[in-house]
Specification:
The structure holds 2 protein chains of 2 kinds.
Chain A lengths: L3 E4 L2 E4 L5 E7 L7 E6 L6 E5 L3 E2 L7 E6 L2 E6 L9 E6 L6 E2 L3 E5 L1
Chain B lengths: L2 E5 L2 E3 L5 E8 L8 E6 L5 E7 L6 E3 L7 E6 L4 E6 L8 E8 L6 E4 L3 E5 L2
Parallel strand pairs in B: 2-11
Antiparallel strand pairs in B: 1-3, 3-8, 4-5, 4-9, 5-6, 7-8, 9-10, 9-11
The chains are: A mainly beta, B mainly beta.
């Protein structure tokens, strides 16, 4: 199975800050990488697919980049509603696997 | 509105069985691959099972292989997960999730249904 490792595991930031979360795959996944946002008690919400494509309805302050084994999710200017947990997921091969999550807290 | 609604969760003793259902609406269910994904309390996301749009191919995580079975009824716009020989470590919120037609991300999720396995 492909292992996905996110860093950091948690980060504290303020409204207006720029935040970057990284995701590393244990082997190459091409651009078959997605990012999700999850708020407490809610289902995950797809933000980015194909490493850098913004899902419909997702604010443009979210962006993704990378290919192969190294990927990033960037939030350009944090808004209050962005404080949540973020997961990456590879869709290159079965089984699909998720990173362990990055919790984004208010500083 | 595109929607997935899970049901069937609850409390069960170790070794017991449950059948989860996921009702789809607002899209052509028969055109999409579907998955079950679970999340243990306070933990991350774990993929459980996948079924192709026509139900002709299914995949299960090693952790549930031989105990869980995914199925679908396209005429009823419904997805199912039959869970047998349940263990304490199966305790989790179970989500059904739709697969995008391209790039295989999970684009629509249900609200989740809680399964608790405890004596």
């Amino acid at each position: 199975d492909i292992q996905m490792t996110q860093s950091p595991s948690s980060v504290s930031a303020s409204v207006g800050d720029r935040v970057t979360i990284t995701c590393r795959a244990s082997q190459g996944v091409g651009r078959w990488l997605a990012w999700y946002q999850q708020k407490p008690g809610k289902a995950p919400n797809l933000l980015i697919y194909a490493a850098s494509s913004l899902e419909s309805g997702v604010p443009s302050r979210f962006s993704g980049s990378g290919s192969g084994t190294d990927f990033t999710l960037t939030i350009s200017s944090l808004q209050p509603e962005d404080f949540a947990t973020y997961y990456c997921q590879q869709a290159n091969s079965f089984p699909p696997t998720f990173g362990q999550g990055t919790r984004l807290d208010i500083k | 509105e595109v929607q997935l609604v899970e049901s069937g969760g609850g409390s069960v003793q170790p070794g017991g069985s449950l059948r989860l259902s996921c009702a789809a609406s607002g899209f052509t269910f028969s055109s999409y691959d579907m998955n079950w994904v679970r999340q243990a309390p306070g933990k991350g996301l774990e993929w459980v099972s996948n079924i192709r749009s026509r139900g002709d191919y299914i995949y299960h995580a090693d952790s549930v292989k031989g105990r869980f079975t995914i199925s679908r009824d396209n005429a009823k716009n419904s997805l199912y997960l039959q869970m047998n020989s349940l263990r304490a470590e199966d305790t989790a919120v179970y989500y059904c999730a739709r697969v995008r037609t391209t790039w295989d991300a999970f684009d629509i999720w249900g609200q989740g249904t809680m399964v608790t396995v405890s004596s």
